């Protein structure tokens, strides 16, 4: 159990700067996810924590101990690779046993033929195998101990990789996109399993993924990385409701947030030629509307934006309406409605080729021209209040 | 760091052993007979005389020409026979296809030294010994080429061939225009493999050729050795250099292709 | 007429005809070069045919029993196996060693590949001649080395005890580069994250990495290189013909050389045919191993 500290980590490969001055404090026992698009540096950061890459400058601390230059196997961390990296020629049992063999047997006792000469080795191996069986039982791998990785399914291989990590009782588990090689259904199942495992073990988990759903559902905190920097660090709710920048808001959330250009006119915000029922905050340049932040209303409602419906997706429990805002800068907008709300709107004649979408002041996000979010008190305006 | 230096030293020593004969060969070819065993120091340069002597003692250039004729002849027929056969085995279902492929696989295990005796008898009987044809004949069929090309042709998409057939394109044109270009890397690599193997072959030419004027390079080198008895090692090494030069130079020019071609037997 | 209307797609019978046409030359050559000769060989091995003989007698398996009792033949078998016994470990291990050393290098890798592969492309007859002079007991530069080591003048090619190892060394010299390239390909195929997982597990030293990851992953490649080297070594002929002609006193007479002598110098065709079939049996045994090794490689 340990906290991990990263202080001003910089790393370049060839001429490319991959990590720019990254500082991050991971709390003891938390599940922290590094999320971002490919190339943002998240995997590199993880590998630097593991000791597989050496940072150009900056320091790594694991549990109060500076580990720069310390070998990966001596840092108290274990890693689960995207491809699992199981030893193909060893059985499941021997795969899981490998870290313990490395720790407890001398070099002579590890060499292929010579090791048969050592009685001490047999004793130690018995102890190791007992631990392996305990770990296998915890991961429901008992029946598979004698098989080789080639004979296992993707989900089973993943659990073996986890077992190999768990058997070392590390201070921290590092996971590099462990679910991306699994099919969708299995992925959802394994998400729950991993979250469960974290609860049971109470260890620090550092998880890397490009999938924002995984990040949002599994983590205590999320660090969103873009272009070698941490764009925002916070709980999933913070990233979703209070994104620091437009980049964060655009990456998190599905379907993606609608970004509507706005400008200030006579002390009111105007977008798509309509005066908005939102408070006019100076410097506002972009209005961010998530799919649940707009509702279809009657034509003529003050503050409602005119849009053309492109298509409607019926997902059973909810509907997604894909539309394009009319006006000088046509922008895509998505509207999310529960099935009930959709039927009600349809019966009220609000859904046709032309939609009027009213932004919810409580959920609307305003950003300045640099993409920074503008924070303010409730955005309801006098116009709305007067109506 | 120390490890890297040790590795470099070891590799260097090995490399020196690899290159030693070549260096020695060329150095000696420049020296007069008496000075030949003076180690690596500088000495008189009579390279021109040595090479001239080598070229006149035995028709070395003729040997190379023979090598070119034989290798080219073999390669042309090999490709002309193997490509259609491989295509048929890969894409054209015909009666006896399985049997033919089985025989090809079996023949892969039979080196040329096995049918050599009966082939020799046959050629002797038909009076065809001591001819270019005799040197080339057993190699006209390369089962390895058939095996290799069939592998490549099999992975060529059937749909393209079927679409071409529907468009009325003749089968020969389909092979020539579409399928062969896709397999060019394999064909090029095999060609190099074939040329090197047959340029350097001694066993078969030794058996069927007795006339000096027909000898390919290895056999020529043998004749040259016998002719150059006596102590003119300079000329002998000059001859060896001339014989070895073509392939070595070709190798240095087309390194990648060479390595690909010759190790095809391993990497198929 | 009505049958034609109900016929399936016109491709099939067409393909049947073309298929035969395309495969015909190969099939013909297959018969002329392999099927007929091997059949003739089998027949000849059962006779006492010698070139120019007027009549032939059928001997049954006498040629084979004679071969098994023939001291020259038996010596050639032991010589050939002794040769293979040196070339095989030497060629495989040195090739592996060279590959391991070259594998890490990035900039000089091409250079090393060229240097080590050069002997593979060279004409063996010529290079063997050069080796003959390098190793000459009175006149070659290697003499300096043996003198410096206190071994005196070593007659590499004329000492019966040394001739086979010397020929084997030349054989190794010629094929190390080939094996190195094959091993390099095998090494490149090892996934990097296996080494990383091993590093995290504590196997970061060279020996641990080799036995935990490298050697197991190279298994099929090693198997393949071993069999290929064995077959190549088994077919040794050129160096023997050029450097020793089987001498001194038959110490370097290998199987192919004896077959060559029997068939093409002494013209004892029937006997040579029998010997050739024995040679083929050995080669087939090796080839079957090779096929099995290839098969494992695909499924690994």
From TrEMBL, chain B:
It is a multi-pass membrane protein. It is found in: Cell membrane. One of its GO terms (cellular component) is plasma membrane. Pfam families: BPD_transp_1 (PF00528). Keywords: Cell membrane, Membrane, Transmembrane, Transmembrane helix, Transport. It comes from the Bacteria. Residues 64-254 form the ABC transmembrane type-1 domain. One of its GO terms (biological process) is transmembrane transport. The chain crosses the membrane at residues 6-27, 64-87, 99-120, 132-153, 174-196, 233-254. Belongs to the binding-protein-dependent transport system permease family. This is Carbohydrate ABC transporter permease. It comes from Elioraea tepida.
């Amino acid at each position: 159990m340990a906290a991990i500290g990263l202080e001003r980590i910089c790393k370049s490969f060839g001429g490319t700067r991959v990590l720019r001055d990254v500082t991050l404090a991971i709390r003891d026992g938390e599940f922290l996810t590094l999320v971002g698009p490919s190339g943002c540096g998240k995997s590199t950061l993880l590998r630097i924590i593991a000791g597989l890459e050496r940072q150009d400058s900056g320091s790594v601390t694991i549990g109060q101990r500076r580990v720069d230059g310390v070998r990966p196997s001596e840092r108290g961390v274990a890693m689960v690779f995207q491809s699992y990296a199981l030893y193909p020629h060893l059985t499941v049992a021997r795969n899981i046993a490998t870290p313990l063999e490395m720790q407890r047997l001398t070099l002579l006792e590890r060499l292929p033929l010579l090791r048969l000469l050592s009685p001490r080795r047999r004793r130690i191996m018995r102890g190791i195998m007992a631990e392996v069986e305990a770990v296998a039982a915890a991961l429901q791998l008992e029946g598979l101990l004698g098989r080789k990785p080639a004979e296992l399914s993707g989900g089973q291989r993943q659990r073996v990789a986890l077992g190999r990590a768990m058997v070392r009782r590390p201070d921290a588990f590092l996971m590099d996109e462990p679910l991306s090689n699994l099919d969708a259904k299995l992925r959802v199942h394994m998400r729950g399993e991993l979250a469960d495992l974290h609860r049971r073990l109470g260890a620090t988990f550092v998880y890397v993924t490009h999938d924002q759903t995984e990040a949002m559902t599994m983590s205590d905190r999320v660090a969103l990385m873009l272009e070698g920097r941490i764009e925002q660090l916070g709980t999933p709710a913070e990233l979703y409701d209070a994104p620091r920048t437009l980049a964060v808001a655009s990456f998190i959330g599905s379907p993606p947030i609608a970004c509507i250009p706005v400008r200030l006119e006579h002390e009111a915000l105007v977008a798509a030629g309509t005066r908005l029922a939102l408070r006019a905050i100076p410097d506002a340049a972009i209005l961010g509307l998530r799919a649940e932040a707009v509702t279809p209303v009657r034509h003529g409602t003050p503050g409602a934006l005119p849009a053309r419906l492109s298509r409607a997706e019926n997902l059973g429990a909810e509907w997604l309406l894909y539309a394009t805002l009319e006006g000088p800068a046509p922008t895509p907008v998505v509207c999310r409605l529960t099935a009930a709300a959709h039927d009600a709107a349809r019966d009220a004649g609000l859904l046709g080729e032309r939609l009027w979408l009213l932004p919810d002041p409580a959920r609307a996000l305003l950003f300045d021209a640099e993409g920074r979010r503008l924070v303010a008190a409730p955005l309801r305006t006098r116009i709305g209040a007067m109506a | 760091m120390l490890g890297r230096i040790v590795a470099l030293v070891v590799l260097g020593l090995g490399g020196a052993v690899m290159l030693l004969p070549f260096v020695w060969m060329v150095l000696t070819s420049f020296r007069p007979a008496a000075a030949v065993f003076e180690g690596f120091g500088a000495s008189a340069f009579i390279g021109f005389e040595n090479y001239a002597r080598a070229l006149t003692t035995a028709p070395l250039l003729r040997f190379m020409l023979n090598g070119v004729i034989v290798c080219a002849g073999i390669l042309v027929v090999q490709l002309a026979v193997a490509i259609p056969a491989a295509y048929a085995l890969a894409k054209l279902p015909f009666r006896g296809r399985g049997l033919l492929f089985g025989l090809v696989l079996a023949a892969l295990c039979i080196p040329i030294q096995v049918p050599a005796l009966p082939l020799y008898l046959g050629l002797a009987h038909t009076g065809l010994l001591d001819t270019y044809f005799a040197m080339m004949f057993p190699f006209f069929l390369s089962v390895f080429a058939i095996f290799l090309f069939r592998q490549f042709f099999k992975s060529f998409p059937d749909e393209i061939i079927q679409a071409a057939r529907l468009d009325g394109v003749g089968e020969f044109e389909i092979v020539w225009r579409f399928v062969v270009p896709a397999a060019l890397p394999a064909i090029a690599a095999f060609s190099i493999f074939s040329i090197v193997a047959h340029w350097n072959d001694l066993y078969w030419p030794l058996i069927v050729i007795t006339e000096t004027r027909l000898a390919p390079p290895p056999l020529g080198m043998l004749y040259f050795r016998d002719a150059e008895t006596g102590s003119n090692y300079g000329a002998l090494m000059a001859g060896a250099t001339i014989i070895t030069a073509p392939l070595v130079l070709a190798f240095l020019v087309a390194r990648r292709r060479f390595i690909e071609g010759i190790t095809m037997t391993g990497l198929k | 007429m009505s049958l034609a209307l109900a016929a399936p797609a016109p491709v099939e019978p067409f393909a049947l005809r073309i298929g035969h046409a395309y495969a015909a030359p190969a099939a013909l050559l297959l018969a002329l070069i392999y099927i007929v000769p091997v059949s003739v060989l089998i027949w000849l091995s059962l006779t006492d045919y010698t070139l120019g003989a007027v009549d032939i007698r059928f001997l049954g398996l006498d040629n084979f029993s004679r071969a098994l009792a023939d001291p020259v033949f038996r010596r050639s078998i032991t010589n050939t196996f002794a040769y293979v016994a040196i070339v095989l470990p030497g060629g495989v291990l040195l090739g592996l060693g060279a590959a391991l050393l070259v594998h890490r290098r990035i900039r000089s890798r091409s250079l090393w590949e060229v240097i080590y592969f050069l002997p593979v492309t060279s004409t063996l007859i010529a290079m063997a001649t050069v080796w003959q002079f390098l190793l000459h007991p009175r006149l070659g530069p290697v003499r300096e080395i043996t003198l410096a080591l206190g071994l005196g003048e070593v007659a590499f090619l004329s000492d019966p005890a040394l001739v086979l190892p010397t020929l084997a060394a030349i054989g190794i010299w010629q094929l190390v580069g080939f094996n190195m390239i094959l091993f390099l390909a095998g090494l490149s195929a090892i996934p990097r994250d296996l080494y990383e997982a091993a590093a995290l597990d504590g196997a970061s030293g060279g020996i641990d990495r080799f036995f935990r990851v490298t050697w197991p992953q190279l298994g099929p490649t090693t198997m393949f290189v071993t069999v290929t080297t064995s077959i190549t070594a088994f077919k040794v002929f050129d160096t023997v013909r050029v450097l020793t002609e089987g001498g001194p006193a038959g110490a370097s007479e290998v199987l192919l050389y004896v077959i060559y002598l029997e068939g093409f110098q002494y013209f004892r065709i029937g006997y040579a045919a029998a010997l050739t079939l024995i040679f083929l049996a050995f080669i087939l045994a090796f080839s079957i191993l090779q096929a099995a090794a290839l098969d494992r490689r695909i499924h690994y």
